[in-house]
From TrEMBL:
InterPro entries: AAA+_ATPase (IPR003593), ABC_transporter-like_ATP-bd (IPR003439), ABC_Transporter_VariousFunc (IPR051782), P-loop_NTPase (IPR027417). GO terms for molecular function: ATP binding. It comes from Aeribacillus composti. This is ABC transporter ATP-binding protein. Gene3D superfamilies: P-loop containing nucleotide triphosphate hydrolases.
Length: 265
């Protein structure tokens, strides 16, 4: 189990996370949903030790102290993080990049898994081309494969579908399902609700740094019946949309100054 408790995290005067608990279980997919600026990336970066916060982080009941290098190594071995930003070494080819990444792991990796991932994400024909010459989607696929072949127990994925074509979105969904059946615990932050629909076991919904919903799939069905994730999202946030409706439906105040000018002029 990967478990994060953020007692407190603040960005300036504007944004605060308080008493947030996120747990990722083996063989489960947890969706992290929320509007732009809701706090998803802040939580994800905290889970991977990339952000300071007041709270605790543990992997398989081992408490992680981010100031202790053995703990950081343990975290990196057991948790893969696939950021929404693509940061690769552009002058390398994907093949060279995978070797570089492999050398940075302090454990044996599963080469069969790497071969499988290269095949299904259709990267074979790009393996020897500098990353700088690849399309955005192929860079994204290179990034995804470079983290998934690590074979970690947990995978944290920020906006996985950004820049992928519909084929690859479907293949990614099947890959995540496959990883889940192999016991991998996955956290998925996405705005692509239909992508998460089939996959999720748990859903956490944030609004302005606060948890609006933290439910298992069964609890979702109990609370919302057979609604789609998009309908659940809208229902859980309905107060927010009232404001937009009020603005849309407010009578227009016509600026009559031009008419007056022409009448008097
Ligand atoms: N390094 C930072 N310094 C100051 N404020 C920050 C920093 N990083 C994030 N924030 C602010 O914290 C809030 C949460 O940001 P975060 O990136 O976690 O949101 P998000 O849910 O991932 O949004 P998006 O869907 O747009 O990626 C936002 O108001 C953002 O402006």
């Amino acid at each position: 189990m990967l478990s994060l408790y953020i007692q407190h995290k603040r960005h300036g005067d504007e944004f605060e996370l308080k008493n947030i608990e996120v747990t990722i279980m083996p063989s489960q997919i947890t969706l992290l949903l929320g509007h732009n600026g809701a706090g998803k990336t802040t939580i994800i970066k905290s889970l991977f030790g990339l952000m300071d916060y007041v709270g605790t982080l543990s992997v398989n009941n081992k408490k992680i102290d981010l100031n202790v290098s053995e703990d950081v190594d343990y975290l990196k071995k057991n948790v893969s993080y696939i950021s929404d930003e693509i940061a690769l070494f552009d002058y390398l080819t994907p093949k060279e990049y995978f070797s570089l990444i492999e050398n940075s792991f302090k454990h044996q990796v599963d080469h069969q898994l790497l071969e499988k991932l290269i095949k299904i994400f259709e990267l074979e024909r790009y393996l020897h081309i500098p990353i700088s010459n690849l399309s955005h989607g192929n860079k994204k696929k290179t990034q995804i494969v470079s983290q998934l072949f690590k074979g970690s127990e947990f995978v944290i994925f920020d906006e996985p579908t950004n820049g992928l074509d519909p084929d690859m979105v479907i293949i990614l969904r099947k890959t995540l399902h496959f990883l889940k059946t192999k016991g991998i615990g996955i956290l998925l932050s996405t705005h692509h609700l239909s992508f998460g629909e089939e996959l999720y076991d748990k859903v956490i919904l944030l609004r302005n740094g606060k948890v609006k919903l933290n439910c298992t799939r069964d609890q979702v069905f109990e609370q919302f019946g057979r609604m789609s994730l998009e309908e659940i999202y809208e229902e859980a946030n309905k107060d927010y949309y009232l404001k937009a409706e009020e603005i849309l439906n407010a009578p227009d105040v016509r600026d009559n100054s031009e008419d007056r000018d022409s009448e008097t002029g």
